Amino acid sequence: MGLCEAKYSGLTEEVLEEYVALTYLNKGEILYLMKKFYSIAPEKIEADYFHRVNKEDVIKKFHVLKNNPFQDRLFRVFSSQKDDCFSFEDLLDLCSAMSPECPIEVKAAWAFKVYDIDEDNHISSQDICNIVDRLTWDPSSRTNYIDKESKLKIAKVILEEMNLDRSGSVGLNEFKLILLRLPEFTSSFYFRL
Fold first, then answer.
1. Separation of alpha carbons 161 and 49, rounded Å
2. Share of the chain above pLDDT 70, in %
């Protein structure tokens, strides 16, 4: 019995090697994530390696998610069951996408899913307004800093710059093309473990 298997039922050396091969995380990062994830519900995870942990419990252990304005979208996009819960593998997918080792094309595809708020496979003016709301929300006053007219102007400018096929919204390929030109994207779609 390997060290991983002895410590975390279900996480065998073979499974660990598969995770390393399938993610942009190394063994140390994966074991660190398992240690934190396991500590949420050790008995349940011991009984069922694929146990799903609710959003609130995940956020308590992974503080990087606590104040993220896209927290709900991250759970929606990375939850394999779309149930506001994470399995360990869902957490690995999220952390892999946020890893500095993740290629920009892969990050861009995940970012597109997060920013496509209405999930219609296009980033529209409405999605952009929603993004601006999330970035300008003031929780203390429970208001946004930017009025609706200004948000629509911002959305119009962004769409004029990013909408290469002039369809009125941005598709995945356009989104990727634009983000490949922005060197700061990889450092902004990232979090430290």
1. 46
2. 95
